[in-house]
Amino acid sequence: MGQLTAMSTATAIDRVRGELHRELAHMRTNLDRFEILMAALSAFRRPVPNYEPAFRNMGHLMLTAHELH
């Protein structure tokens, strides 16, 4: 009977160890998601920088057909 109890204990320890590994992996995934969400929140809280487009490559669109000749 002693050997059966030792095997049962070893099996139980292996199950608990496996469950702990699964939970840690799940926590890592949640922490990664949390980190991404916090970075997004931080980015959205900053004011939008001044933006003035420089349409340097779009000058030809302002020309008439006669000027494009």
Notes on the protein architecture:
- The protein is built from 2 helices and no strands.
- With 69 residues, the chain is an all-alpha fold.
- The chain has a domain at 1-48.
- The radius of gyration is 31 Å and the shape is rod-shaped.
- The mean pLDDT is 81.
Number of helices: 2
Largest sheet report = none
Q: How many β-strands, per DSSP? A: 0
Measured as a percent range, the helix fraction is 55-70%
Short note summarizing the structure:
This protein is mostly helical and 69 residues long. The protein has helices at 2-45, 65-68.
Topology of helices and strands:
Layout: H1 2-45, H2 65-68
Features:
0% strand, mainly alpha, 69 residues, single chain, 70% helix
